[in-house]
Structure formats: C-alpha cells, structure tokens
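To whoever is on call:

I kicked off a structure prediction for a single chain this morning and the downstream step that reads the tokens threw a length-mismatch warning. I double-checked the sequence; it's 450 residues and nothing unusual in it as far as I can see. Pasting both halves so you can look.
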Amino acid sequence: MTPDDLQLSHTSLAATSIEISQALYGCAHEVGLAFADDPAAIATLMSRGIRGPLLLVGPWFDLLLMGELGRLAPERIVTAGFDAEVLGYALADFAFEQVAVDQQATFSSEGLPDGRVWLVDDAQQAVALTALGHQIGVGVYAYSGDLRALSPESRRAISRDTQVELHSSFDDDASWQLEVVRRGHELPGGGLLLFDGSPSRRLVAIYGHPSGPGLGVLGEQDAEEGVERLKSIAEGYDADGSVVLPTFEIIATVASAGPGEDEDYSAETARNVIRPWVETAAANDMYVVLDLQPGRTDFLTQAKMYEEFLRLPHVGLALDPEWRLKPNEVHLRQIGTVDAAEINQVVEWLAVIVREEALPQKLLILHQFRLQMITNRHLVETPPELAVLIHMDGQGPVPAKINTWNLLTNQPDAGQFHWGWKNFYDEDFTIATPDQVLGLTPDPVFVSFQ
C-alpha cells in the first residue's frame, strides 16, 4: 500500500496511525507516541519534530500497536502525556524518552501540496488527524456545524482539490454541503449562507411588478434604473456593520379581482417579463425574490411555473398568504390564510432543488401581519437548505406596525425563523427610519419598500 492508496480509517485514530506507518516505513530510527485523545501531547511531539512515524494509542497498548513497534524496531521512542510507571511496563523492551506536554504547542498542515484534504468536525480528532495527514501530504480542515460556513480560504482549497474525504460524526447533510462548497456557486456578495456569515448580511429590496408603478416602487423604473435607485434606498441599513445586499422583490403572480381563464383569481406573469430583472440582478451582484399571490390555487403549483429561475443561486421565493383564498372566497373581502402543511410542500420542493443544483442557501419568505394568516406556524419546516424568513408586511403608523412586529415575534416559535420588515411609501404615513428598523428585536435581516 502506498500513501496515495490510504483511505481515512473510520475505525479508530490508532488504527489509522498504524496504516500510515506501515505504508511509509520499513523501519524507523525514531517513533513518536501519544494517546489519540490527547491533542496537547500530539501537538507537543509534532512541534518538536519526530524523525519517523507518529503512532497513537487508543485505550491501551494493544497487540496491533505493539506489533508495529516490534516491526519498526526503533532506536528510540519519544513519548508525551504518559505516566512513567505505565511506560516502564508497556515499553520495557524499548529505549524511550519522555517529554513534558506543552499545553500551548501548536502546528498546522500549512504548506502541504494541494490535492488531498480530510474534513474533520471533531476538534480533538482534528489535531490528531492533522498530525497523521501531515505525514502523507494530506491537509486537514476542521469545522463545526455547517460545511458551508467554512472560511473563504478553506472553501477555495476544497473546491480545487481532487480528493476530499469526510471524517468523524458527519450527519447526512455533510455530503450535499460538501458538493455546494466544491461547486462554488456563491451568493451575491460572496458566501454560501444568507445570514450566518461574518459580517452579517441584510437584504434591502424594492417591491412591485415590472408592468408599472401601480403595485409598488419596483415598477416605477426599468431594471437598470432600479439598480441605481436601490443605492439610495439602502443607505443607513448598514449602520450596525451588516453588509447590504440590494434585492428586487418581484410579484410573479398577482392577485386579481376576477377569476380569469383558469378561475384561480391570480394572474401569472410570463417568464420573459421577469427574465430581464433576473439577468440584471445577476450582472450587478444582486438578489431576486419572486413573490406569489396564488388566489384559489396552491403555492407549490405556482412556484413550479418559475422553476428555471429558482434553480439559480441568486433567486429566492416569497409566499403571501394574504392572497391565498379558500374556495368561494375573493380578494379584499377576506384576508387569506395558509397552513404549515402547504408551506412545507414548497419547503421540501425548494430544498430538493438546492441539493440537485448544489446551490447556496436559498431564501424563502413568508409574509404575515396577522397570526391567523399562517396556521400551525410552529410546524413550518426550516431545513438547512433554506433560510426561512417571516416578513412583517403590515402597513400603517410606525407605532402600530411595531406592535404587530412584537405580536408576531413574541410567539414560542419565533426563534426558528429569520425576520423582515416592510415600508410602504403611501400607506405608512411616516416611514420608519433605518435607526428605528435596526432597533427592532429580533434583528430584521430583510427590509423591503413598496
């Protein structure tokens, strides 16, 4: 077996160290020895320099380890982190040198050639695996939680490498997250997670329909002019250190007074009307949200009409329950409502798209200004493929809107969602200032203007 043939052992670190030793050495002048679960001892030996293999001890000096020491026949074994009496008993047939453990000792795999990486999500094992990987030219990247949260440097290294192996207690999310990192389709402004990066991100959007100003500020100009207008609208929303991501929120399906040919009380916008806005956003490093007002049909049916856009890394989706009618209801006579079960159909469909396309996290907005607009809200799924956000889109005086915000955000399930705020130029009388919006709790990470 050659070092290139070695696959990362999932049985134990001790077994992995023996496999590497057998692949690299016929014999050894010197051997390093430390317990596999003692990162400080391992770092001490590596920073000191070992002229031979590093062997790791599991719970005890087992037959495999002692057999490897016998095969290597080292002139000296350098140890760290063992009791002297234990060493005297276990290594009676060998000459050994015991060094004191340096709790501050550090080392890294920097400078190794590109080409092979081990990903490790256990801090203790990361030290041991970095030491083992160093012997065979393998770089180790340690992380906790979501692989998409790796540093830009780590992501670039992994995306170039031809061989990446996962190690330790990875769950089912690790494989698809690794593919997202390797594919490298980032969000506008960089990164793979919408709101969990550093620095934090806030989307500031103009809302409306491309056909004209009747449905919001977005239609008051074309896409290129909208890019410029957003620059002034977004001023002040970075005062807390957040990075502002300019956004078009486009009403893709518009609630209508009449039933229409399909009798669903919703007018679907042709994709060729929306496409120039999507393309302009991509060219200017912006985000797009497609908003659905479905009338008597369901959200998933309408979402599928715009699947080609939702397979892009810079396009998210918004569901507006105000315009989700029950049979025999009509708009403006009743305020619509939707149950978590219907929302979850969209959640699951979008999550599949994210995995299939290896996309960065995708935004899913749920509009709400009354509790009854989303029934069983606590059952809405929030998988890691999506950033699920509730957008408080009520209108009126600022104090009344803040009361609505407090009502919606003080529910037991509020912590599972991100939150957004909406400003209306005509209906709000006095528009909330950036300072007022940024003073809200929880932090509004999406702010739109209609």
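Update from on-call: the warning came from a stale cache, not from the record. Cleared it. Sanity check on the structure: The mean pLDDT is 90.
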